[in-house]
Amino acid sequence: MAPWEDQIFDPDGDVVLILGGASVSNASITDDTLPDTPMQNSEAESPSPCQQHHETNECDSFEAKVSSKHLILASRVFRAMFNGNFREAVDLHKQEVSKVALPDDNPDALVTLLDIVHGLNRQVPRKFTETQFLDIVMLIDKYELHEATYLFTDIWFQHLWKWTEKTPPNLFDWIYICWVLTKASEFKNLTRTAILESQSDLGQSYTGPCPTFIVQKVESERLALVSACLVRLTHMLGRYETPMQQCKADKDCDAQVLGSLIQKLKPLGLFPVPLPHAPTAPTMSVKELSSLFHELKIRTLCQLRYNHSPPCRRVGDSLQDIAPELGGVRGLGIGSFARTKSPGPP
After folding, report:
1. Which of 4, 17, 70, 311 has minimal CB crowding within 10 Å?
2. Where is the region Disordered (predicted)?
3. 3-state DSSP assignment of residue 100
4. Are 329 and 192 in contact (CB under 8 A)?
């Protein structure tokens, strides 16, 4: 495999970043994964070093000569690194060129951001795959490059955003992207979708970059809806288990209803009614739980004995009342999640 080529972002730069040397995403740009856009140029579409070597997960390291002044102006993190008491700052003051290794950062994503920070706009691609965009957003979040990159991130976001009417397969990755880029409307819509369509154990099953406090809040809202549904189900079953007769037409009808309910609910894991946090709690989403109760059919004794509208016809209405009311569910407000990092200029 050919070695990586060193890159110069500023010929008079005083910092050399050592990039690569760790596992990186092997996603590559392909025509069928990119949206059509009039903003194209041949330079932007040429493959980067990592894309040229995408057949392996290991990338050779290479050096990038950069300007600490550009990095300091664009990023609070780099300002602290080069102006504080960190080793990088001490080395920078001791010698003309300081070397800083960044092996954990995706090289392709960081090269794109370095192009932007150094004003090399013609080198910046106008389109990316979703995986590449996520890699870039993660570094924007890590180094607080929101202000320096927002013109480009708006372009990339608009080209890739297609989730107005459908759910993205990587839902929480997109929630994270919207949070980092302060896309309030999209964030609210996606978190509503997550509350309604996610299943249990979100905190354990999701391992992506979306902050734990956002995932936990979505799970909390989901559990609140499930819990309210199970409480209503418990109350309904309780009415048929008490001596007070529910059906006024036939004293045996209550037993028929209760037996039918148990028969339908038990295979679904809903009888005995579990606690929302219990291991036996239903793993289905709020939307699935709502559909279940809307579609659940219970035959009463009155339906078998009366040709006219049965006196206990409200059993079906009660089942629909148990179902979570999806129309009233709202997504999360992005303002509820204060950032520990400010997206403003340093």
Report:
1. 311
2. 28-56
3. strand
4. yes
Bond from prior residue into 49 cis (ω within 30 degrees of 0):
no
> Where in the chain is CATH 3.30.710?
7-126
Residue 325: what pLDDT? Answer: 81
pLDDT at residue number 199: 87
**pLDDT class for 40, splitting at 50, 70, 90?**
very low
- CA count, 13 A, side-chain hemisphere, 67: 14
What's the pLDDT at 96?
Answer: 67
225: which 2 tokens?
Answer: 């809806």
CA distances for 93 relative to 14, 68, 294, angstroms: 10, 11, 70
Question: CA-CA distance, 261 to 245, in Å (whole number)?
Answer: 16
Alpha-carbon distances of 222 from 167, 289, 326, rounded to whole Å: 17, 11, 11
CA-CA-CA-CA torsion sign (317, 320, 326, 328): positive
Chain centroid offset of residue 1 CA:
36
At residue 281, the 3 state secondary structure works out as coil
Give the orientation angle of helix 286-295 with respect to helix 314-322, to 10 degrees. Answer: 180
pLDDT tens digits along 144-153: 999 999 999 9
Most confidently predicted of 131-140, 275-284, 307-316 = 131-140
Q: How many CA atoms lie within 13 A of 184 on its CB side?
A: 6
To the nearest 5 percent, what fractions of the chain are helix, strand and coil?
50, 5, 40
Q: Concatenated DSSP letters for 191-250? A: HHHHHHH--S-HHHH--SSS-HHHHHHHHHHHHHHHHHHHHHHHHHHHHHHSSS-S-SS-
Specify the length of the chain in residues: 346
- Token pair of 134 as six digits: 């996520």
Hey, what are 346's tokens?
Answer: 């340093």
From the options 3.30.710, 1.20.58, 2.30.30, 3.30.470, give the CATH code of 7-126. 3.30.710
